[in-house]
Amino acid sequence: MAEKTTEELEQLRDLIDGVDQQLLHLLRKRLDLVAQVGAVKHGAGLPIYAPEREAAMLAKRRAEAEAIGIQPQLIEDVLRRLMRESYLNEKDVGFKQVREDLGKVVIVGGEGQLGKLFGQMLNLSGYQVVSLDKDDWQQADALLDGAGMVIVSVPIAVTCEVIREKLSSLPEHCILADLTSIKSAPLTAMMEAHKGPVVGLHPMFGPDVGSLAKQVVVVCHGRGQQHYQWLLEQITIWGARVVEAEAPQHDKAMQFVQAMRHFCTFVYGFNLCNEGVDMESLLQFSSPIYRLELAMVGRLFAQNPELYADIIFAQKDSFGVISHYLENFTKALTLIEQQDRAGFIAEFERVSQWFGELAPQFRNESRAMLQSVNDLKSH
Ligand SMILES: O=C(O)C(=O)C[C@]1(C(=O)O)C=C[C@@H](O)C=C1
């Protein structure tokens, strides 16, 4: 059924259309300026992401908005969305090449998604990149000849084997790096296989990010930092933040951040499926937070099972961490079994205290996410 309207409403809508069209022209103007900024930054070797400029700009626009009766959060939302566009557009101009005399970069597993992304970023920064994928080992010598850096980006299950068996005779000046999501075992394997500079990296994002602005790359130092410091600088120019960590500390955190998280998501979907839940009615009756939850679960099953198996099975110790979750689940479940409402509230308060200041911070963050989920709805 067509939406009802009146003549007066249509006149006002025409005026709104006019304002929206002006907005479009202003957006075009901003994008053109940002393209010029991209070219200037490319020339000067400046990072794509400028947090201080962003903070100062947002503070000024928020105050100006308030002065004319506009919610500060509105202009902040609009500008943050526009800056996301800036990261993408500035990226296309390319990046300053920090190390010009490196020789070629060989990405082992260069046809995988993450390998491809790093290849693309290095290409955009002027490096010559070649891929050495699983079917290319017969030509490995030719491909590796003249390499200044070799980056290993193969499935976790075969990373150490590939390093030990295939990369033990690289020239000493060559940098050996990996992008694996665990760090202790690959770092040890690289240190044993290679005498030269070694560095472990873990990009804390999936390959579908449009740009690296604001993303985190964990770095675990191996040896010869002075020889690969340029790479960390290059990653910073791409807009990412480099976070240093000890490999064991990183791997411990990954048991929660990756193994536990993805396994719980898997079990959530496993349960919905085994219970034969009617997804149509769940979707129809979803609150925004449930919709977001379904999206987080559903997106897992749209991806490669091998990748998640790799992540979940990467560390044997994850079993212990996940088993504790099951124990705690069972403990909490007894509260329901025994209809212990007061006990539930007491536990809730204890955990809430434990979260401390983070709890209200997370509530604010999630509010913005939930509002975006609602914005995405079309009916
Ligand atoms: O001013 C800059 O440095 C820009 O790159 C432009 C811009 C923006 O869109 O306003 C984009 C990214 C930066 O993080 C900050 C601001």
From TrEMBL:
What are the residue boundaries of the Prephenate/arogenate dehydrogenase domain, all occurrences included? 103-366
- PROSITE patterns membership: CHORISMATE_MUT_2 (PS51168), PDH_ADH (PS51176)
Keyword annotations for this protein? Answer: Amino-acid biosynthesis, Aromatic amino acid biosynthesis, Coiled coil, Cytoplasm, Isomerase, NAD, Oxidoreductase, Tyrosine biosynthesis
Give the classification, highest ranks: Bacteria, Pseudomonadati, Pseudomonadota, Gammaproteobacteria, Alteromonadales
Where is this protein localized, as stated in its record?
Answer: Cytoplasm
Matching entries from SUPFAM superfamilies are given as: 6-phosphogluconate dehydrogenase C-terminal domain-like, Chorismate mutase II, NAD(P)-binding Rossmann-fold domains
Q: Please give the Pfam families that the UniProt record associates with this protein.
A: CM_2 (PF01817), PDH_C (PF20463), PDH_N (PF02153)
Q: Where are the transmembrane segments?
A: none
Tell me the pathway.
Amino-acid biosynthesis; L-tyrosine biosynthesis; (4-hydroxyphenyl)pyruvate from prephenate (NAD(+) route): step 1/1; Metabolic intermediate biosynthesis; prephenate biosynthesis; prephenate from chorismate: step 1/1
Drop me one GO molecular function for this one: prephenate dehydrogenase (NAD+) activity
According to the record, the signal peptide region is none
Q: What is this protein called?
A: T-protein
What domain of life is recorded for the organism?
Answer: Bacteria
Gene label: tyrA
In its UniProt entry, the species of origin is given as Shewanella electrica
